[in-house]
Amino acid sequence: MKTSLILLFLALMVLFYFSGNYMLAPILDTLHKEGIIPGNEQTWRLYAGFLKTVPGFIGLALTFLWGVLGDKLGRRRLLFVLGLAMGIALILVSSVTSYLEIMSYLIIFGVALLGISPVIYAFIADVVPSEKRGKGYATYYASSVFGMVLGLLMAGILLNWRTAYLIAGVFVLVFVVGLYLSSKGVTIGYSDSPETTKKYSLREAVRGALTRSVLIIMIQIIAWTIPWGMLAYFSVDYIMTRWGIPRTYASLILIVATISIAFGHIIGGALSDKLAKKKGPIGRVQVSIAGIIVGYLAMVAMLAYPYPYGEVSFASLLPPALLAVAGMMFTTFAYPNISTVISDCVKPEYRGTIFSIYNILNSAGWAIGPTIYGALVYFFLSSGLTKSSSLLYAAVSLVSLWLLCIIAWILLTKYYPADYKRLRTDK
Questions:
Q1: Pseudo-torsion of CA 337, 342, 344, 350, nearest 10°?
Q2: N or C: which end of the chain has fewer CB within 10 A?
Q3: pTM of the entire predicted model
Q4: Which of 354, 352, 361, 359 is nearest to 219 (CA)?
C-alpha cells in the first residue's frame, strides 16, 4: 500500500511538471503579442527558441551534479527540493511581465526538470523491488507523456496561459509534499535491502557503470533516442507534406499516437514484469526485442504508406493512423526496461550517478535527432529527389537506427542475466 501511494504521488507530480514543460509551445505567439517575447516578425522566433534552448543546456550541464548529490545526500530530500523549485518557478511564470523574468524562471524550472530525472530513476529503484520495476518505471514514463497532452490542452485550448501555469505550479507543490511525506523511511537501496549502504565513492560509481549490460544500454541509447527526437519534432510537418492534409488533422494523429506511447509504457512494463517473474531477467529482454521489431515495422509502414494525397476522410486517415499508433506503442515497450536494466546492474548507492550519465545521453539523442533529420532531408533534396521522397528516405533512415537497438538487446540476452546475478552475489 505504501509503495502504491508513493508511486501515485510521484505520478501526479510528474504529470503536472511535465504539463508545465509543454505549455510553452502553444502560447509562443501569444507571448510575443503581449510583448513578453521581444523582436519583430523576422526575429521573435529566435528569442522564443532561446526560452527552451538556454534552460535546456544549463540544466543538462548540471545533470551529473544532481545525480551525484542524490547518491551522497539522499534522493528523497533532493526530490523534495527540486520539486519545490519547479512548482515555485511555474507559479512565478504565471506572473511575468518581461522577457528577462520569464527566462530567469524557466532557467530555474529547466535546471530542476533535467536534474530531477536521474534522481527519480534511482528513487523508483529504492521504492520498487526488481521484479516490479517495469511497472514502476512505466508509471514515470506514462505520466510524462500524459503531462505533454495535459499541458497542450490546458495552455493551448482550455485556459488562459497564466492560469494554466499557476495551476500546474500549485499542483506540483501539493504532490511533491505528498511524495515527501508518504516516502518517509525510504532510503537508498530500501527495496533491495533495509540495511544502510556503503559510503559514496565516485570512483566506485564510475566502475559500476562499466558492467557489460550497462555499457550496452549506454551505447545504444543514442541510436534509440535520435528517431524519437525526429518524430516528436517533425511528425506534423512530415504528415502534412507527404499526405497533403491540414495541420489540424496531422496534429490530431500525433496526439493519438502520443497517447499510445503512454499505453506502450504501461503494457511493456507490465508484460516485462510478468515474464521476468517466470523467466528471470531474460523475460524483459524478450519483451523489448519483440516490441521494437513490431514497432519498427509498423513505423516504416506508416512513413512509406501510399496515402491518397489531400484526402481527409476517416476511411483514408484510419489505416496510417493505426500504423502510427502501433509503431509508437510497441516500440515503447522497451523504454521501462532500459531503466530497469540499469537499476538491476548498478549498486543502489551509485544509481543516481549512473542514471545522470544515462539522462545526458538520452537528452542528447532527443536533441540531435531533429538536426540530423534536417541534414538528411537537405542531402536528399540536393541529390535531386523530390521533397516527398527526401522526407521519406530521411525519416526511414533515422527510424532504422532502431535495428541497432535490436542488436543491443540481443547482446543483453547473454550479459544481462549474468550481471543481474553478480550484483546480488556481491552484496
A1: -150
A2: N
A3: 0.83
A4: 361
